[in-house]
Amino acid sequence: MGMGGRFVHGDDFAAAVWRELNPEPFKRKAVEPVSPGSRERRLRAIEEAGYNTFLLRSEDVFIDLLTDSGTSAMSDRQWARMMKGDEAYAGSRSFAFLEETVRELFGFRHVIPTHQGRGAENLLSTALIRPGHFIPGNMYFTTTRAHQERNGGTFVDVIIDEAHDPQANHPFKGNVDLDKLRDLIRRVGPANIPYMYLAVTVNMAGGQPVSMANMKAVYELCREHGIPVFVDAARCVENAYFIQQREPGYADRPVREIVREMMSYADGCCMSAKKDALVNIGGFIAVNDDELARRLRELVVLFEGMPTYGGLAGRDLEAVAQGLWEATEDAYIRHRVRQVEQLGEMLRERGVPIVEPVGGHAVYLDARRFLPHLPQDLFPAQSLAAALYIVSGVRSMERGIVSAGRNPQTGDHYRPRLELVRLTVPRRVYSLRHMRVVADAAAQLLSLRDAISGLEMVYEPPTLRFFTARFRPVSPWGI
Ligand SMILES: *Cc1c(COP(=O)(O)O)cnc(C)c1O
User: Fold this and answer.
1) What are the sequence ranges of the domains in the chain?
2) What is the pLDDT of residue 165?
3) Which single residue of 32, 243, 251, 360 could bond 238 by disulfide (Cβ 3.0 to 4.6 Å)?
4) Which atom from ligand 1 is nearest to the alpha carbon of 116?
């Protein structure tokens, strides 16, 4: 039965369709052809890529769910803005537009562009971390922790325990455990904690949000001890949408207002604009403190470029600013998060084990339950990502022991409890029908799972190994 059958005279039909079917709040203006190719071609491609989906060529990929980073479709308005980019070396009008936008949407005083999120992380870590420092955070992120360690700091995970349990159903699984944070402050002393780094949403926990109440409590606790709080704002709009949907008192507040309130519980943020800001490249750091801003501007000149362009073209700054305005529209963000949820629903209906609840940017397959016969040393999530590509041409990403890397002190693997495959949905790119293909492919693979024998690592780079490590099956796979 279609929508028509349930329509009651006098209801707003369009509003009901909007709610139930989640139609795209945009239409196509440019397209790019894609196809699954042949099975032989996919087998050859994954062999050549060393069973690492990062090393596949995108032309061999049908539906690319490797990442939501820099893969958004830009709007006609963003493209129009790009033509208006002011490429002056100094005093660019495009910088002024970005600065006004971030001030207005986030409320921070100083805005410094960087080429992407890790550029901002580099500036913040270099400015504030000294050897022996501890940096609490709600679960690690790869580039974030790498920059903290590069500056002699030690990351300390203070996320709630539920975040490490793929089946724990908590509405704000990204929350900080205030007792863990208090313990750390007591144990090492506030003088050894240069800042608290709060990710909203938490990428590595499956795109899980942090509640407004928790953000506020973290900020107050840190303030008591003179510890500044910086937010990882890569997916702050998705986080705001979850607050609107799940936290009492926010149902009628526009997402834009919620974002602004979230940022009022922080001293600044680093943002990879490649996520929620709907652009292909870009980022920035924004802070309130004048002295910190001065040091960041000294560093940005060294690593990125003048403080008014930070390694970006004027046109990129225009696209970031325009993207931030579009991302914070309720109709956009509702469709975006709902589409990810719909992929989760289709997988659940097919009995595929996923992380619950579904996060903002991705659905995560639980490789421990999907491939229960594989021990962590045979890289279950890496194996699952490679197998999904072979059966369908769908590209996903490992988020398990390979991504976690090694402890620089002991040289041992970090052994995360979560062994996940991330199906990351690019913004405004794929249709619900594409999501259906992904769900069917995962279900098909589930029926063949016993034929996947696992992988061994044959090349390992010294840092961020998940990008370039190579593997081979321990015995041939019968999929
Ligand atoms: C992507 C990302 C970063 C790093 O940003 P880049 O633009 O890739 O350098 C930092 N934190 C989180 C949560 C991210 O998702």
Assistant:
1) 29-61+330-473, 76-327
2) 86
3) 360
4) 7
Most informative mutation of 140, 198, 202, 203 for ligand 1 (most atoms within 8 A of CB)? 203
Tens digit of each residue's pLDDT (9 = 90 or more) over 458-467: 999 988 899 9
Q: Percentage of residues in the chain with pLDDT exceeding 90?
A: 90
Token pair belonging to 230: 């910086």
Cα of 375 vs centre of ligand 1, distance in Å, is: 29
Stretch (H or E) spanning 43: helix 39-48
- Which residues line the pocket of ligand 1, CB cutoff 6 A? 69, 116-118, 141, 143-144, 199, 203, 232, 234, 272, 274-275, 283
Classify domain 29-61+330-473 at the CATH class level: alpha beta
Mean pLDDT of 93-99: 98
User: Nearest-CA neighbor of 403 among 354, 367, 443?
Assistant: 367
3-state class (DSSP) for residue 286:
strand
Q: Are 432 and 373 in contact (CB under 8 A)?
A: no
Q: Give alpha helix (H) positions in 374-448.
A: 380-392, 401-404, 432-446
CATH for 76-327 is: 3.40.640.10
- Indicate which residue's Cα is closest to atom 14 of ligand 1: 234
> What is the C-alpha end-to-end distance of the chain, expressed in Å?
37
Q: Which residues lie across from 284 on neighbouring strands?
A: 113, 271
Give the per-residue pLDDT at 51. 98
Residue located nearest, by CA, to atom 1 of ligand 1: 272
Question: Which tens digit of pLDDT belongs to each residue from 146-158?
Answer: 999 999 999 999 9
pLDDT digits (tens, 9 = 90+) for 384-407: 999 999 999 999 999 999 999 998
* Domain 29-61+330-473 shares a fold with domain 76-327: no
Q: How far is the CA of 38 from the centre of ligand 1 (A)?
A: 33
The answer to whether residue 1 scores a pLDDT higher than 50 is no
Torsion angles phi and psi, residue 174, rounded to 5: -90, 0
If you count them, how many residues does the chain have? Answer: 479
Q: Which residues participate in catalysis according to the annotation?
A: 89, 141-142, 232, 275, 399, 466
In angstroms, the CA 282 to CA 114 distance is 6
Nearest CA to ligand 1 atom 6: 117
